[in-house]
Design goal:
The complex is a heterotrimer.
Chain A lengths: L1 E3 L2 H7 L3 E4 L14 H17 L5 E4 L4 H14 L5
Parallel strand pairs in A: 1-2, 2-3
Chain B lengths: L2 H4 L7 H4 L7 H8 L24 E6 L3 E3 L17 E4 L7 E3 L7 H5 L7 H9 L5 E2 L2 E4 L7 H19 L4 E5 L2
Chain C lengths: L2 H9 L3 H12 L4 H19 L7 H7 L4 H19 L9
Helix pairs in contact in C: 2-3, 3-5
Classes of the chains: A alpha/beta, B alpha/beta, C mainly alpha.
Amino acid sequence: MSVTVARDVTEAVKVPRALFLPWPMGHHFGVPFHLDLQRRVILAALMLLEESAEPGTIRDLPIKWADVRREAKSMLTIQGQRL
Amino acid sequence: MTAADKTPVPAAEPREAGTQLRPGLWQTINERYPGSMIRKESFVSQASLSKPLAEARLTLISSCGVHCKTDPPLDVCHPFGDFRFKRVPSSSKQRELIIHQLKYPHDDADLDLNVIFPIERLQELHLERRIGSLTPNFFSFIGYNMDPERFERTVAADIADAVVQQEHADCALLAPA
Amino acid sequence: MSVPYLREAAAHDDLDKLVRFVRLHLGDGNEAVGQDEIDRSWAQATKILLRYEPVDREFISSVLEKEESTLALLFYHLHFYLIRKSGRWIHDGSR
């Protein structure tokens, strides 16, 4: 199964199953050091592997990029680092 | 009708709306580089997992261009792309790996490789027995390529053969960069 | 621009299409940036030569004996080498 940030490209390629994330290129598993989020993406993809039956299934992981950035910012603030 | 009613509702910003951040990407790239984008006519039939994930062997395949620091990098300068791939031992530590790619932003992945090549998260899930095992090697190549037909015949076929015949994977996580 | 598209352009010596592709590749999808990068790499080579440092002409002669596909690819490598040397690196998402 694939993770994708470009639903239209994945639709054109017709992969058997994919998890779509509305995130930027190069950030398919989230943001640096956000272990929980990285894990969540992988587990959602693995779940799709076990559950999807129809070829071309594209499932959404509805986490907005704005929320990811906000979370990343607060994590860095908690760690006392500068963005 | 009030003035406010006439004000067009702005299209939701993708970051806030949760939609694809770069809409129409296939079309945009194919207009810029005619014929470079793949469009398949039919679906590959879906193979189902023959055993529970906790017993299955998983591999990771990514176009992110990561490789072992001890390996020479792939060719990012070639105008049509590099038709080779790299094996990345699945037991690798992040500090042993490096991304060599020009065509996508990897400044965040340089801080934490797991944002594009989640090798450490997969190692953890294996230790927790959520995943049965990892193939000895994972796979990486350069996503930029101007010859999809040749790419499919060479890189894609060679990785698929290696995944099945050498690594004996039951399933694969694909991470396009 | 796929390889079949470029082969057709090459067969017709369609310089516009070929040059546009080169600029897009060197500019990571932005033709204007690619043009600027080409100018910069030549300017950088010229800047380096202005230092009048010793050069290894024997090496150059031996390199030029290589097959032309290797040399053509070397040309692309030298372009990126000079861009790095110019200190203005816009590729791979570096901030």
